[in-house]
Amino acid sequence: MPRPQADTDATREMLLETAEQIIKERGAISFTVSELAAACGMSQSNIYRFFPSKEALWEAMAERWFRELIEIMEDVVNSGDPPRDKMIAFFGRRVDLKRARYAADPALFESYMELGSEHFEVVRGYVDLGDHYLAIIVADAMEDGYFPGLDIDRTVSLINIMMQPFCNPELMMQMLDTLSEEKLEQVVDTILAGLSARPPADETNRPPLSIAH
Amino acid sequence: MPRPQADTDATREMLLETAEQIIKERGAISFTVSELAAACGMSQSNIYRFFPSKEALWEAMAERWFRELIEIMEDVVNSGDPPRDKMIAFFGRRVDLKRARYAADPALFESYMELGSEHFEVVRGYVDLGDHYLAIIVADAMEDGYFPGLDIDRTVSLINIMMQPFCNPELMMQMLDTLSEEKLEQVVDTILAGLSARPPADETNRPPLSIAH
């Protein structure tokens, strides 16, 4: 007889909460499914009935971390706000959430960051999803006349470079004291105005640099 | 009889090279003066004749790492180039140097980064020195009419936020594939044009964010 779905969900949730507690207390680097099994008093094969592979467990933990961040991005993208407001909310609301999570439990926050470094193949899809939502905002802004002469991918890449402290969680926590709502607005305004301006003619004799791609 | 200065310098250099080798092979986190003493076959008290404290040893290692980076910054600041060229060279030439160091020896590069995290009080002065040089370039740019209505400290802070991938070495190595000379120029042009533009009037009803400082 198949287990009722509600029981399965409750067990999965219990396993994820236990996994969270383990990485919080012992760090994420050495965390394994067998450690989770031991902590729950379950056999490893029983755990695999709820998460069919260790990758499925990492994915469920990532899904738990990113769920609310994705809701924010969808909410912002689907709002009828002007591009400037969307840009500010897109980064600012996620900074707020990450700041709140860090304040609530710094050790857990750092363990999730460590887990993400260990299993970056799982995080990669969420990074790409963030770029996807940002690309929608950039396309909206282009319809309003921003970023003339630039394509969407290039614009997204340049915005990501200039916005790192507002989107890279490790960097954000390092720079938290220097980041403010006012500076976020100034950076967004700089991007919107500066990436919409014609670059000055390059009439210099600076020696070439080798940063080449 | 005092030791000849040349002998002292040679021994200090040998100790620094050995220290470099140790952090490269075993990481910087557990590195101690007694480990250095053991590796050189010297007593700890003998090492203290060359570096009077462990702090003096960390400082000498930091000086070794930053020497050439400071030369670049001084060279750029003292050049007669226009502000745009100075900004590009200020960041670009240091990216080139760090990229070359990373390519030459990734393990040593990462060990120095780890050493810097472990002893950030030593690195702090060099970060401030970088801000000092950037402030001189910003002041030059202001004389040319850039950044109207902004003060130097605020401008330096905003530039540091937008330039993180071009100055934070850990982030730089993570993003190396996406950074290019052309993007550096586009970011500098965005900063110069965007921070010199009047921000648009804020006529929105966006909910307030809590990023507040």
Short summary:
Two copies of one chain form a homodimer. Chain A has helices spanning about 5-25, 35-40, 45-50, 55-80, 85-105, 105-120, 120-145, 150-160, 165, 170-175, 180-195.
Give the amount of beta strand of chain A, in percent.
under 5%
Largest binding interface between chains: A-B, 50 and 50 residues
Order of helices and strands of chain A: HHHHHHHHHHH
SS field, number of helical segments of chain A: 11
The backbone outline of chain A, from C-alpha atoms, is elongated
Major sheet description of chain A: none
Distance from N terminus to C terminus of chain A (CA atoms, Å) equals 58 Å
Proportion in helices of chain A: over 70%
Looking at how many chains there are and whether they match, the oligomeric state comes to homodimer
Number of strands of chain A: 0
Mean pLDDT of chain A: 90
Radius of gyration of chain A: 21 Å
